[in-house]
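Bug: token stream looks shifted between consecutive jobs. Job 1:
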Amino acid sequence: MSKRIAVLVTHDFEDIEYSEPVQAFRAARHSVLNIENRAGNIVYGNKRKFAVTIDQSIDDVSVHDFDALLIPGGHSPDRLCNDDRFIHFIRNFAHAKKPIMSICHNPQLLITAKVVKGRLMTTLKTFATDLINAGAVYYDVEVVNDNNLYISSRSPEDLPAFIEESLMVLNQ
């Protein structure tokens, strides 16, 4: 069954952490909608390899519109951390018990949303202490799947495992 996936993304996302999962999700016939401040905005990856057109404003979406959430890494999550609308959306997603797929820098956003306590997760070693201090159980492995609700990976090198695990969850 096709799923609707919300992607929280803004400028300086990690190009490959956006492009590869999104391509894989679309190839599996899932619908992907890019969400940022305003529909029609164009945001760029930190390596400027990809430009992403925003489909919907964060002001116009509801958790109930989606089956899963993808948060690509790079500096995009750091930028979104400062906007309560994105934090509220993530918190509602977690409370709705819908899958959240995150890679690389995302713990900052999830920590700010206060949704990692007791969760099994991985991230870049740089953020491991922050994740542990926020109450998550940290594993230094390529992908962690916490009850099909939190799928996390460390870096672009882990993308094949991250995509495989995410698709397994989405295809259920």
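Job 2, same session, no restart:
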Amino acid sequence: MSYAQFGTIQASDYNTLVGTNPNTSSGTLNTVWSTGGTTAGYGQTAEATVAVGDTVAATKWANLVTKTASAAAHQGTSITSVTAPVSGGTIAYLSAIPTNLTTIYTSRLNAATQGSTTANSAVYGATWVDALTFTHTVSFANGDAARYFFNSGGQLKITCTHANVATPGNQLFNGLASNVGTIVMSSPISGTATISSIAYSGIMKQGGGGSAPSPYLINNGYYALTTSNANVFTQVVGTGAYTSSFIRLLVKSNGPQGSNGDVGSVVTLYTVWDEVPNNLTVGSGSTVTVTAQAPEVTNLANTWGAITIAGSVTGS
């Protein structure tokens, strides 16, 4: 018998709403709240099902209601308010419960706020005339930890800086680095995720200026990563004698590590600075910073764990 008005509530009704774990079906709590699969799942403690024939305690229904509300609060999603039942009370049919579960699934990649940051800056400490390659690796404990990070609103942010020293080479890359703005990697491979009130595609330029990046692969978020480098963003100077000089971002992962739809536990980002042609001397101090912006931990527990970022730079 399905959960319906005037029906007798059975364990199977509750189990259908909670879902097994792992689960990837829309309309079940554990799909969004716990392990889930691919783009669903925050990694929180799963709500256990009830054995067929057992009484569904009021506390179990209360857990379903409160965890649904916590997921919605994390997302900034509007759902219908439901009063959790108390021990000894009557558990009434509420059409809002399945509707709310579907709503939090649809909005699962949104996040109303974010949490702490971890950053690494790689700095080239000498002058150069050709090209630099900055390499950053962002490592998670395992594939699911990476999934939980991105599914819960975590992002990777890349910024470039160079001092505005009054020589042509320094001014060239000071301006180019400024035009890059902040490159943000979120989860999507299509559509957007609304995080801290901003709708993000998988790769998105924030701020900056200059000409439009090309290529600019906006749908290459975390879930688009493979073990091959993808050129997702190239900002060129666009004007003057050094119009073809560029800063480029290439990304890859170490490939799927688990069985729940991750695409890797290590994200590698290569930021290439290239002077074209190689005539100007660029001063020391060229810098790329990669920042991991973690999800919030008010409505969610930290299930993505510690994030390690290592950076290095080579060139001449």
